[in-house]
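Both lines are quoted verbatim for reference:

——
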Amino acid sequence: MSRMVSARIPDALFDQGCARLEELGATQTQLVKAAFDYLLAERSLPHAPSSKKKAVRKELSPEQRRLLAAKLSSCQLGIDIPSDVAYAKKVAHEAREAKYEAVS
């Protein structure tokens, strides 16, 4: 006994796929059967090549490093925080308020 498989595929993909199947001398039925054979053998779907570019790690130039360091240091409060956490939060809050008042 055989089963009928139905699937929705974008027109352009279907047309290109049928043209390639014709070049190979294969049918749509052979394609679907091959997909099921692959699924059973590999226990996964075949993966299409990714069109996404691989992330490239870029290095900062010395000037960019200097500028970044300067911007980060301007964000720091520049105060000594005592080991007592509750007190440290109070001191940090007061220093932050003073800094904001100086800016305004």
